[in-house]
Design brief:
Structural class: alpha/beta
Strand content: 5-15%
Radius of gyration: 19 Å
Number of helices: 15
CATH topology: Rossmann fold
Low-confidence stretches: 1-19
């Protein structure tokens, strides 16, 4: 939930138990710990939604809920149906117990890259990819919507003293975000961190149980993307149900149901409706100069493979 998270990197003895001969990295921050995955017992058909912050996590959770349950009337808030296993705000035993009791096909949320979660052959892994500049704009606005006093209270830490620092205006914040040097495994919401997450998923895109979804394609053709995902997950949806399911996954419908759908089970958002702010693309291009965008593109070219960047930056299909 943090605007920018700092995660100490994996140290000796801090790897997760191996899954299929592989030892995942461990990512930790003040409010997340991917080590919780070591206590999760996979079932056949589990879906892990691995996204970077503000890349369409809640949107994909809702799509999975609609495909799995095949009803627009969800039986519980989305954050309960699709819990965030890594989040330290919620007791681990409580989350694992809820998942154990679920009878439907399970779909979980994580902001951890795939190199930090067990890759179980029984499960499917869905990674939503978004233009990093558009995601950064959403991250900026999300930062202003967090109740940090409440976050500190829930995590048991001391509340920050004095008034909160004055936030820079969006163009200046983006400018600093583009230029900031960061270890991609210590600061996952930085540009290097975002491109580390996406590059790792891109390298696994040929794996049969890894599905990459472009955020702009969800915007341009939601029904087509939902049908394609259902096919990849082996879910059959009766034809007569598609119109209502697609409508319920649309941004206007989700914003109307913010009280049930926003990822806020313990009240850390100041305004749940504001969480669903825009739901489109191109916001960064509206505030950045050509020089700033060129600087972003030059830096990105050093951080990610050219074929991934061409796919990320392309016009919607």
């Amino acid at each position: 939930m943090s605007e920018q998270t700092t995660r100490p990197g994996p140290r000796e003895g801090q790897a997760l138990p191996p899954a299929c001969g592989r030892v995942p990295l461990r990512y930790r921050s003040p409010d997340e710990d991917s080590g919780r995955w070591s206590s999760f017992a996979f079932r056949p058909g589990d879906v892990v939604i691995s996204t970077r912050s503000k890349h369409g996590t809640t949107w994909m959770q809702m799509i999975c809920a609609l495909l799995v349950l095949q009803t627009t009337e969800l039986p519980a808030p989305l954050a309960e149906l699709s819990p965030w296993l890594d989040w330290l705000v919620l007791p681990q035993d409580e989350v694992l117990d809820r998942l154990q009791r679920q009878q439907h096909r399970r779909f979980l949320k994580t902001h951890t890259p795939l190199d930090g979660v067990p890759l179980d052959p029984q499960a499917s892994y869905v990674v939503v990819c978004r233009h990093p500049l558009d995601a950064a704009v959403s991250l900026y606005h999300q930062g202003g919507n967090l109740d940090r006093q409440r976050m500190h209270q829930l995590l048991g830490g001391p509340a920050p003293a004095g008034p909160p620092p004055v936030r820079p205006v969006l163009p200046d914040w983006l400018d600093a975000w583009i230029d900031r040097e960061a270890d991609p495994r210590l600061d996952l919401d930085s540009l290097p961190g975002v491109l580390h997450h996406l590059s790792d998923a891109w390298a696994r895109r040929a794996d049969g149980n890894v599905v990459l979804v472009h955020y702009d394609d969800l915007v341009a053709d939601l029904e087509g993307q939902m049908r394609g995902l259902a096919h990849r997950l082996g879910i059959r949806v009766p034809e007569h149900r598609w119109p209502s399911l697609v409508a319920a996954a649309g941004f206007p419908a989700m914003r109307e149901r913010a009280a049930q759908l926003a990822p806020d089970p313990v009240g850390v958002l100041r305004d749940r409706g504001a969480f669903f702010r825009r739901g489109g693309s191109g916001a960064a291009g509206e505030v950045l100069s050509d020089e700033q965008i060129a600087r972003y593109e030059a830096k990105a070219a050093h951080l990610a493979p050219a074929d991934l960047l061409a796919w990320l930056h392309r016009a919607p299909q």
